[in-house]
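Problem 3 from the worked examples.
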Amino acid sequence: MLSKLKNKKVALLLLPGIYFLLSFSYYQIQDDKPTPYSLPYDTAYLPKPNIPLDNPLTVEGIALGRLLFYDSLLSVNKTQSCASCHNQNNFFTDAGKNVSNGALKIPDDFNSMPLANLAWQTEFFGTGEQNLWKSRL
């Protein structure tokens, strides 16, 4: 009787470990290389876009960018996404407003800049501060 009880304890202790190992065998190890994305555009009318060499376009990067653009958790009070002001239905602008209100509902000095054709831009924010967005994150 004692040996049966001991065998059950051993089996119960091994069961979570076996389950853990088997659960990993279900998933295949994925290749960590991102999937390159080719930006479709009419080369007869547009020059080559300004894509940084250290940040190439990838399918995964574009999907992540879309998620972050619509995620309100990135704002100071977690209530407003980029899309709140850069509305896709208004060509990524804050149409009809003289100035934009941030997440704290304090009017800014300017309206949100339109976000269209940015792959061909070299300066942003109307002030020429290309990397200002990094300080806003």
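Problem 4, a separate protein:
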Amino acid sequence: MTDAAQRSLCHGVARSAPGNVDETPNTKHEAPDTPDPRFLAGVALFNRHEFFDAHEVWEDLWNDCAATDRRFYQALIQAAVAAYHWERGNATGAARLYHSGRRYMESFRPVYLGLAVDAFWDAMAAYLAGALGETNAPAVAPPVIVLREV
């Protein structure tokens, strides 16, 4: 991993580019008919617990995607980086990225590109329970993304 990649990861990757802030949380989004192969590649990496690599693939997609999808991919990136931080003992970073990612994906509920949004974030919360302040929470395996047929 390069120093620049490490720095960007440590500083909360996938911030909106200047002037590209979309703060409309209740907007409904229509998913494209066919998901970008990079979305599916990121899902496969995430499911193998290769969180840094998943974030890299999704970040590439985030840079190229339509404005309407930017928050969705940004939320996935933040979920992957939250899991990455949690694996490395950075509870503060994991919690911060969990909360912002969940917020960013709110307008894509209930299902977007086959991802059941609430179920995904509930599984992330269970995995990150210790980072989210639940000191007696049992250890839970990282979530697995199962996409629904669209």
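Solution to problem 4. The first helix runs from residue 3 to 10. The CA atoms of residues 114 and 148 lie 4 Å apart.
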